[in-house]
Amino acid sequence: MTNISANDLRDRVSFEKREEVDDGYGNTVGMWVAQFERDACILPSKGGETVIAARLQEVQPALILVRFDAQTTTITAEWRLIEVRSGTIYNIRTSADMERRGRFITMLCEVGVAT
Known about the structure:
Helices cover about 0% and strands about 60% of the residues. By secondary structure, the protein is mostly beta strands. The protein has a 6-stranded antiparallel beta barrel. Strand 3 (about 50) and strand 4 form a beta hairpin. The protein is globular and about 50 Å long.
């Protein structure tokens, strides 16, 4: 992972956080609210299949890196990200400065699983 540079951030991702939003009728509903966009490096991993509710479901894990900054350090596993070009939705499982050098935030994400 130490070989990643700014040139490798070729993908664009949008981060969303689930928030309670007023529906205009005095109720609140949970909605995904866009937070910010960043350039990213998406590194797909070997996929697999998992059995959920007695049916087979494809799961595609990926490591996604973005630059370390004040906003990206707030990303948690309750958030999700969307690849802007394809519209693919990734569920974030972990988010941390894995190198502990303040260069990149590394997220383990999955496609094909429930949020």
